[in-house]
Amino acid sequence: MQTELICEKEQLHHMGEIQPFGVLIAVSKENNTVTHVSENIGDLGIAGAKGLLGKELSGDIANLFSRHFDASQLENTDIFGHELNGKNYFVKPYSTNMHNVLEFLFDYSHHKHNKKTNKSYLYEHPSTNKELLEFSQKFVENILDILQVEKVMLYKFMKDWSGEVIAEVCTNINALGEYLGLRFPASDIPKIARNLYQLNPVRQIPDATATPVKILSYKKTNLDLSNSELRAVSKVHLTYLNNMGVQSSLSFRVLLGDNLWALVACHNTTPYEVPQARIEEVKEIVKLYEIAIRHAHSKMALAEDDHIYQLIQKLSTDIKSYSKIADFIDAHKEKIHQYFDADGLCFITNDSIITSGIIPGQESIEYLAMNILNRQTSTYCTSNILDAFADSHSYVGPPGLMAIVVSNLNSPGKSLLLLFREHSSIEVKWAGNPNEKMHIINEVGIVNPRHSFEKWVETNISNSEEWKKSENHLAISLVGSVQ
User: Fold this and answer.
1) What does the pLDDT average to over 35-53?
2) Is the pLDDT of residue 1 over 50?
3) What is the pLDDT of residues 357-403, one digit of tens each?
4) For 122-129, which contacts have Cβ atoms below 8 Å and span 24 or more sequence positions?
5) Beta-carbon neighbour count of residue 130 at 10 Å?
6) Is 272 exposed, middle or buried (0-12, 13-18, 19+ CB in 10 A)?
7) Helix (H, G, I), strand (E, B), or coil: what is residue 177?
8) How far apart are the C-alpha atoms of 474 and 417, rounded to whole Å?
9) Closest by CA position to 23, among listed 36, 35, 13, 38
10) How far apart are alpha carbons 337 and 179 in whole angstroms?
């Protein structure tokens, strides 16, 4: 059974328990009676959790429900301060399909922190990958100063949902290790957990060793905890944190547009309750960081687009000098190699074939041409031909392919330009062996995750360098220039 599939079996939003740094009350949207309450309701100065179930609330808590759930402007992520029975709390309101929920988070503001941190870097405007990495390093150092935790990492998601630590600061390396530049497999943060981060900007685990608190239910139904701040921690994740030497964790999502781009992971070797005011301060800094990376990506994309535009203009001008596309390809083979960073080229027409550089044999070329023309697409690219085509076991040649189907008004039928890339030695440094199997304890998904996070290097020589989006745009423009 695959690791990620095992983790997906955990219904994280139906844990049926909360962490003990707050109290939960849920009422029915239909009749305002209490449907769910956490067993520690006494911490709010209210006696008898079971006695509340099935009844309507009264007093200050009832007013809170009325005030916040009658307002259509309520956002699930809004947290506000409130005094109840002489104690201060931070209240998280949210709704499910059937319930309105209030969570009362204990106030840890007695943990004094008056240190002013330098935020001047937030006014910088990174415009290259190098500048963005330097900016990200200042970002995690700033967060460590604010939260006073032992370690902060910026964990950026890759295309396959594995993640790489692109910035890190740590004051306790001996206990928490160093992960800068290391990759973590997608199963470490499975899809069900990533979906919850899309809903919630913060995930708190003040004490990974604490005993969770049960949620009592009036009709023995599960409460959807997708938007919960207090949701209990999965047993798999608790073991995972323990294997990392972590007893307290605090994570902030980073969005690029509407998409999950990264996580800020904050770790401590001892239980640690972070005051809500500090968490809110970091949430604001994360929003500014999101603006900065959005602008940085836009600047880099514009620079790349400008470069591609210049190449397209040059291609269009050069092509107009030729009556046949084959003559253009033949005269500009080296230039096309350079534009597409290709190691080989093969251009096929009805009556001729033009080749250059490193290419496969005739049988493999014929096989590729047949498959590409059957795909009914103008461009196609892959970094591994053997993986891309199910029956390609007899193919021998470079693994990287970009195919461009050309229909020229001055030539009958379709022509095909095949660009090839040689194998590239791609080294990935993992935090532990990503192939290490979880130890399955039972069939419902209770497992023991890997123990080691030591650097483990994997070298892949079966693929070529991936084709860039800009190169695909250039290919599309080449097709358009000769239509």
Assistant:
1) 86
2) no
3) 999 999 999 889 888 888 878 889 999 998 888 676 778 899 999 99
4) 122/285, 122/288, 122/289, 122/292, 124/292, 125/292, 125/295, 125/296, 125/299, 126/292, 126/293, 126/296, 127/296, 127/299, 127/300, 127/303, 128/296, 128/300, 129/300
5) 9
6) buried
7) coil
8) 13
9) 38
10) 38
CB 251 within 8 A of CB 267: no
Tokens matching residue 341: 């960073």
Distance CA 362, CA 370 (A): 12
* pLDDT for 442: 46
Q: What is the DSSP letter of 274?
A: -
Q: Residue 134: phi, psi to the nearest 5?
A: -65, -40
Q: How far apart are CA 81 and CA 96, in angstroms?
A: 22
- The radius of gyration of the chain from alpha carbons, rounded to an integer in Å, stands at 28
pLDDT at 443 exceeding the cut of 70: no
Which residue reads 């007899």 in tokens? 394
pLDDT band at 445 (very low <50, low <70, confident <90, very high): very low
Residue 243's closest CA among 414, 37, 81, 453? Answer: 453
pLDDT in tens, 93-136: 999 999 999 999 999 876 555 566 778 888 888 999 999 999 99
Domains of the chain, CATH where assigned: 320-423+463-481 (3.30.450.270)
pTM of the model: 0.84
